[in-house]
Design brief:
With 153 residues, the chain is an alpha+beta fold. The protein has four helices and eight strands.
Length: 153
């Protein structure tokens, strides 16, 4: 019994120490819910809430683009693909990392990923890996299935 009490006290101290350092302990379910909130923010194009989900110094595919660049990228995507909608097919959470497979069924207006889509409806997936820091997306690694799009043109 004394060991259990000691263990609980140690865990409390670890949580207090991580909180004082600005670290956020997030479990798998919490991280998945944060991610679903992020996807809802994107689908609603609620850019005023983007900073709740994305870190100011976010990097994408190894390049720091910052929150402003990330927002510009998303705004451009929605401009070029008016019916863009992020559909979660799969989410795997292993904090601080999360992996997702997103499904898209949309009609890009012109060139898309260097391909002349020009308003043709295409379906494809994107495999995305995220690293979260303090409850926000800090790193994004993304791979779009371009071959699936090419096969539909």
């Amino acid at each position: 019994m004394a060991f259990v009490v000691l263990l609980r006290n140690c865990l409390r101290l670890c949580v207090l120490a991580s909180d004082s350092l600005g670290l956020v302990a997030v479990n798998k379910a919490d991280l998945s819910e944060v991610y679903r909130g992020y996807i809802a923010c994107l689908n609603q194009q609620d850019w005023s809430r983007l900073d709740r989900f994305v870190d100011e110094k976010v990097s994408r595919n190894g390049q720091e683009i910052r929150l402003s660049g990330y927002r510009e990228m998303l705004e451009r995507d929605f401009s070029e693909i008016p019916d863009l909608h992020f559909n979660i097919q799969l989410v795997i959470s292993d904090p601080p990392y999360l992996a997702s497979r997103l499904l898209f069924d949309c009609t890009p207006k012109g060139m898309f990923l260097g391909l002349p889509v020009n308003g043709k409806r295409v379906s494809f997936t994107e495999n995305v890996f995220y690293e979260f820091r303090e409850g926000k997306i800090a790193q994004v690694w993304s791979v779009v299935d371009k071959a699936a799009i090419e096969a539909q043109l």
